């Protein structure tokens, strides 16, 4: 789209994240309404969803106060002869 001269931009955002046992999930949607100068309003939107599952038994704790995931602590360290922590993850993204 290039540069868009605008009078104002309204952004709306929704985010969801958390974990339950070996499962962790996160999703975000963003909607932007651009009131451009000399033209009709423009609308942009996008988002993503992702999920992961630790098949070696670990969990990824979610810190609600800070709004971030905490570090994963392997149940059986790779450096001590274990498998470490392995996660199967998928993510989908869209943007107009």
From TrEMBL:
Membrane-spanning segments: none
Question: Which InterPro entries does this UniProt record tie to the protein?
Answer: Porin_dom_sf, Porin_O/P
Please state what the protein is called.
Answer: Porin
Annotated source species? Gimesia maris
